[in-house]
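Hey,

Quick one before I head out. I ran the complex with 2'-deoxycytidine-5'-monophosphate overnight. Inputs first:
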Amino acid sequence: MNLINIALDGPAAAGKSTIAKLVAAKLAMIYVDTGAMYRAITYKYLQQNKPEDFDKLIASTTLSLTYDEDKGQRIILDDNDVTDFLRENDVTNHVSYVASKEPVRTFAVKKQQELANNKGIVMDGRDIGTVVLPNADLKVYMIASVEERAERRQKDNELRGIESNIEQLKAEIEARDHYDMNREISPLKKADDALTLDTTGKSIETVTNEILEMVNNIK
Ligand code: DC
């Protein structure tokens, strides 16, 4: 098969990154986690005490992705590997706000498009099928019930030794979706030509296989 690009979009905690990683590994493609880019910029925004001048923040920012054989994608921000800080609550709770800013999106989208130039990429995010890769060979819009997404997030947290309350997780996920779907610039929405995949009640293996099947069906 010729090299292809796959766009995987959907709301928060729908399992996009878990599935994207597995699909990429199966097909010997490169996985790009675009949320991590917005999270890295948010980390810097928090480190700098929340400056409101996003043009200035971005003008002093360098961001690159590297791949570690054991640890996967690493995010290098201003010459520092910040990957391990990107899942902190403070970052998660501010990322939708930072990602809604025009200078931030222009900067991140350009990098994402450069990465996808050579094809062979599985990219997950919110606007990949609509804005970043409108010509992607396969677009999947992944959804799951908010209850299940909160439960998955709670299990993830447990594995990381973080205690969390299910009702609070639900509220945070819903708030982030609302913000991401209603922002002015490239809001989260299904591309017209994306296939919807509801993962509620399905195992990781089942969902991965469903996407591999979609890849096989690409004409
Ligand atoms: O996928 P994630 O939870 O790591 O994404 C974090 C946030 O980044 C998400 O709430 C919205 C933003 N985001 C975005 O606006 N566009 C993307 N392509 C990816 C993420």
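The longest helix spans residues 166-182.

Talk tomorrow,
K.
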